[in-house]
Design goal:
about 200 residues; alpha+beta; 4 strands; about 35% helix; elongated
Length: about 200
């Protein structure tokens, strides 16, 4: 009995005939799903990389300014951001100049402005409470420039259902319908002690 089972098993393992159709039906949907997910993730991290580079470029440009900032300048910085990252998805930018005050024993906001649609609020002194761990240690009156950016990474339209939710092959539901990449850059003014808004 055992010998017969061994012989049948050996015969089965030695056989090379068969049809690939069944294997294709079983393996192609998961392979295609993984391929499409990898494309979405690649695009997401590529967008994150571009967003960080754009934020560093903008922060560096602002840090070199020796005249007061105005809306026209920030509109130009917004265009720089959208040129580098691309306008395929929503974005938000927040430009903030803040300082440390020994008298108040706190960080204080000199000015703050926003662009885009993902960041809607400017920062004020109260908003900085709780952010101390992410801000550098400053001397009394020392100022820093903080550029915050948020960029949406959208799933390609071909992977969406009619109701807008994401449905890859085999109807696997992953909560990646829309996610944000964030970049926060902090730098010091290079040539002046502060970067003013409209007037010093």
């Amino acid at each position: 009995m055992i010998n017969a089972l061994h012989q049948k098993l050996r015969r089965f393992l030695k056989r090379t005939d068969g049809s690939i159709t069944l294997e294709a039906i079983l393996y192609m949907p998961p392979i295609l799903t993984l391929f499409l997910i990898s494309l979405v993730l690649f695009d997401g991290f590529r967008t994150n990389n571009l967003s960080q580079k754009a934020s560093y470029a903008i922060a560096d440009a602002i840090s070199r300014e020796t005249v007061p900032m105005d809306d026209d300048f920030l509109n130009g910085m917004e265009q720089v951001y959208t040129e580098i990252v691309g306008r395929r998805a929503g974005y938000g930018l927040r430009f903030t100049v803040l300082r440390w005050s020994d008298t108040s024993d706190a960080y204080l906001v000199d000015w703050s402005r926003v662009r885009g649609d993902l960041i809607t609020n400017t920062l004020n002194d109260a908003d900085l409470t709780g952010m101390e761990d992410s801000l550098p240690i400053l001397q009394n009156g020392e100022r820093i420039i903080m550029v915050e950016s948020r960029t949406d990474v959208n799933v390609p339209d071909g992977l969406r259902r009619e109701d807008g939710t994401w449905a890859p092959p085999l109807a696997m539901r992953l909560d990646m319908d829309k996610f944000e990449m964030a970049a926060n850059v902090i730098t010091r003014p290079r040539f002046t002690p502060q970067v003013c808004w409209e007037a010093c």
